[in-house]
């Protein structure tokens, strides 16, 4: 008799405990997502706590019917990145290395993706429901807070290219863009979606990106937003037409307002390309990228299966530069990364690095299909698009935003399906 009453009581207690832990995990995850935009150190500490909470929640919750093989595909892809980075770090890290920053960045990435496995797994199997739209509207307001802060930095702090205090303007741009996509998508997840508010959100983030003067983000963000609108209104041609026209109007107006910095960055890009093509000079922003791609690919091609330490890669790069002075632009970046996700992974971890990155992308796309998530689709396009011109799976702030952003979007999806697409 005692056993029959105690077991259900204990089960109820563990379920309540798991629910509290789950709420705390998702709340802290959302807070960490935003803090990563402005404070690397604090966001890393909060992320570690979030990861521990996610593990505890999964343990306390125990078996769940939603824990299926399909739901585990994305967490498994995230886990693979973490394992590969841990193995690489363990194999090649040495004391007093001149490439300490590179190893430290990969160690942080490994921690983020290992903990991220459990955070995303929790979101993938969550049954927790929030009936009100307050959370979605709260996330929607984030873009305008970012816009306000970016405007203040631009005009009051005297920053030519705003960086939000996380190191570089490019890092700030990627963070702004990824968080901006989540913020914009949140307004399409409410019971009565607001396409005009989506467009206003897009305009706010696009302006903040212009303040960073990061070309890849400025070019890619409106394209992703346009694709999102087309997919959302695919069954409503008239509303699609009006939305696209309004979107293009916003874009033209903003481009006109900021024509000077946009034209300056365009002219700078053309100058870099001309300098590289006609003078074989890669000592410029775009020229250095092209040199890094060439050097990284040559190192990978020499031994595709080999793993290399940062020191060995640097020595190989220096050998290539000695033979071809047009690749000189790669030199300042040997203790950073090679500005392309696949080139960077292949030059250090060989084919294993390339495949782990590819499987991560595939895992994201599978999650898009499995959960039918328009928000995760837009987020994935941003991760891959930016990853072709830079390295996002590296260091702290952007990987944290990738994991926390994926978690938040999966949580949005678990609350409700996106409203039925507007029809005529």
UniProtKB/TrEMBL annotation:
For whether the record's keyword set contains DNA damage, the answer is no
Which compartments does it reside in?
Membrane
Q: Does the keyword Secreted apply?
A: no
What keyword terms does UniProt attach to this protein?
Ligase, Membrane, Transmembrane, Transmembrane helix
GO MF terms held by the record: ligase activity
Return the InterPro entries for the record. O-antigen_ligase-rel_domated, WaaL-like
| Chain segments annotated as transmembrane | 20-38, 72-91, 103-122, 134-152, 164-188, 195-211, 217-233, 240-258, 342-362, 369-387, 393-412
- The segment(s) forming the O-antigen ligase-related domain are 203-355
Q: How does it sit in the membrane?
A: Multi-pass membrane protein
Q: Which domain of life is it from?
A: Bacteria
Protein name in the entry: O-antigen ligase
Source organism (scientific name): Pseudocitrobacter corydidari
**Organism classification, top ranks?**
Bacteria, Pseudomonadati, Pseudomonadota, Gammaproteobacteria, Enterobacterales
Q: What gene codes for this chain?
A: rfaL
């Amino acid at each position: 008799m005692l056993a029959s009453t105690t077991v259900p009581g204990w089960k109820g207690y563990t379920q309540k405990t798991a629910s509290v832990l789950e709420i705390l995990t998702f709340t802290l995850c959302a807070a960490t997502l935003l803090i990563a935009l402005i404070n690397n150190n604090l966001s890393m500490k909060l992320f570690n706590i979030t990861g521990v909470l996610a593990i505890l929640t999964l343990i306390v919750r125990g078996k769940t019917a939603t824990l299926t093989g399909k739901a585990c595909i994305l967490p498994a892809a995230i886990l693979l990145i973490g394992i590969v980075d841990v193995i690489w770090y363990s194999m090649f890290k040495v004391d007093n290395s001149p490439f300490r920053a590179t190893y430290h960045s990969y160690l942080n990435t490994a921690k983020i993706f290992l903990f991220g496995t459990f955070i995303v797994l929790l979101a993938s199997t969550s049954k927790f429901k929030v009936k009100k739209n307050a959370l979605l509207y709260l996330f929607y307001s984030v873009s305008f807070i970012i816009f306000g802060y970016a405007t203040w930095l631009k005009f009051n702090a005297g920053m030519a290219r705003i960086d939000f205090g996380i190191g570089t303007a490019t890092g700030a741009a990627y963070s702004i863009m990824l968080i901006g996509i989540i913020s914009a998508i949140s307004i399409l997840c409410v019971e009565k979606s607001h396409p005009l508010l989506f467009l206003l959100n897009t305009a706010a983030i696009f302006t903040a990106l212009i303040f960073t003067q990061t070309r890849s983000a400025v070019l890619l963000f409106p394209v992703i937003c346009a694709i999102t609108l087309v997919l959302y209104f695919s069954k409503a041609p008239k509303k699609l037409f009006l939305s696209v026209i309004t979107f293009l109007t916003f874009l033209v107006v903003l481009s006109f307002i900021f024509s000077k910095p946009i034209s300056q960055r365009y002219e700078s890009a053309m100058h870099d390309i001309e300098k590289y093509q006609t003078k074989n000079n890669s000592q410029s922003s775009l020229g250095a990228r092209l040199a890094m791609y060439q050097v990284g690919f040559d190192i990978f091609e020499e031994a595709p299966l080999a793993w290399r330490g940062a020191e060995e890669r640097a020595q190989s790069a220096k050998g290539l530069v000695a033979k071809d002075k047009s690749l000189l632009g790669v030199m300042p970046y040997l203790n950073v990364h090679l500005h392309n996700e696949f080139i960077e992974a292949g030059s250090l971890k060989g084919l294993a690095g390339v495949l782990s990155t590819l499987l991560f992308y595939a895992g994201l796309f599978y999650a898009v299909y499995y959960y039918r998530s328009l928000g995760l689709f837009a987020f994935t396009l941003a991760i891959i698009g930016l990853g072709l011109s830079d390295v996002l799976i590296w260091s702290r702030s952007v990987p944290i935003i990738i994991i926390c952003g994926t978690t938040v979007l999966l949580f949005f999806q678990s609350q409700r399906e996106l409203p039925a697409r507007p029809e005529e």
